[in-house]
Amino acid sequence: MKAKKLSFLLMLIFVLLLSACSGGQQTTGNGKEPVKEDEQPKEEEPVAEEEEQTYDLGGRVIKIVNHWDMTPQEGTETGDMAVARWKEVEEKYNVKIEWSVVPWEEKINQLTASILAGEPMGDIIGIDSNQTAQLVQQDYLFALDDLIDVSATKMNQTMKDLGTFNGKLYLFRNEVNESGGMFYNKTMFEQAGLPDPYELQQKGEWTWDAMLEAAKKLTTGSNYGMSGDPNLLAEYLIATNDAKILDTETGEFVMDSPNAMEALEFMVSMINEHKVVKPNEGSTWDDPRQYFSEGLVGMTQGWVWEAEGRLEAPFDWGYVFWPKGPKASDYSTIVSNTGGMVIPKGVENPEVIYKIWEDMQLWEIGQDGIIEWFENVLPNEESIDTATQMLENINVNYWSAYDLSDAFWGTFHSIATAEESPAQAVAKVKGEAQARVDKFMGKE
């Protein structure tokens, strides 16, 4: 027992001696050694800020061409910012930026001729995805991947996805403003005692079946549940049933897949069996929209930009996703054509041209301007929320860009009118459609 007490006493003395030697300082919780009083901590070397690369293009004129005037205008907060940024960029790169307008119907012919002549009509050109795909196949455009580190651009992933062709980024943009869903007459839904499509949408229950049931109940007297263009109805139903018209990665025509055929059969049943779609009497483009604006139908297909002409409608309306089919797991925004900017082959210093464009954009505003526009043209918070959700649910399939834009004129009409079954109509056009795609992609 005495030995144990002596051992304990010696241990206690040893601990006290250690404490005295350390000057009473405690170690930090991170396990680092304490700083001694006679040692000062070393000052960290300041991190040198990376200098922004400067360019001098010697007063060169940079032309930005589109079919509408893109010149920034003062007079609003955003406009003033854009004009100021324009002048900053001109000074930074020692350039003069000019905007030019070329009519839509003349733009591609002029652009192609100027590229072949070795003198592109502009350094940056505004075109759509159909035109982009054609020019990419002809090797008339620069891919950003070959010029810069695409991962370092200020474009988000959705912007990049919208501008990608054959695995490379050609079409660039500074915002996402895609839409494509369904306008519905809230007043008609309420009067019929139907659940609001937005509420069903938020619960994941806005489906083809729900749409059909609503359309059947709304089809009374001279009113119909829906209006639509068979071409758009077919495209939207195919896309919202996890199907495609064309697999753009493989170049395979796939409109005869089970999911796509199910979509076309559903369209036939809505029009011919249930008779809930109001027949078009003239223009398949204008009639469906006019019917909705006149309060004759409960639902119709449309984009947000169409909302501006409907704010004064004599009834309440809303905007939701196109309902999802039985094979789809989520809602989606169908995009088969969009717009952006490209850099033609033959432009000098194309990597700097892209930097000029990127530096001119008001990235700090982001999507705020788009949301503000939604708030100005849409009638309620539910519709604004839906349009905002659409920006995050883009379903890109540029099938029409592969020389298929006019391949199905009459096909969907013959299906809609039951002149041909979906299987017969699709089988009839499949060979020609595949041949067009193969030629477009140079597979012949």
TrEMBL record:
Give the domain of life: Bacteria
- Statement: the UniProt record of this protein carries the keyword Cell division: no
Q: Which UniProt keywords apply?
A: Signal
Task: Check the UniProt entry and state the signal peptide residues, or none.
Answer: 1-24
Q: What Pfam families does the record point to? A: SBP_bac_1
Read off the Gene3D superfamilies from this record: Periplasmic binding protein-like II (3.40.190.10)
Ranges of Basic and acidic residues composition bias in the record:
33-45
Note whether Signal occurs among the keywords: yes
Q: Give the start-end ranges of region Disordered.
A: 25-51
Mind telling me which PROSITE patterns this protein's record contains? PROKAR_LIPOPROTEIN
InterPro entries hit by this protein:
Bact_solute-bd_prot1, SBP
The name on file for this protein is ABC-type glycerol-3-phosphate transport system substrate-binding protein
Organism, by scientific name, is: Lederbergia wuyishanensis
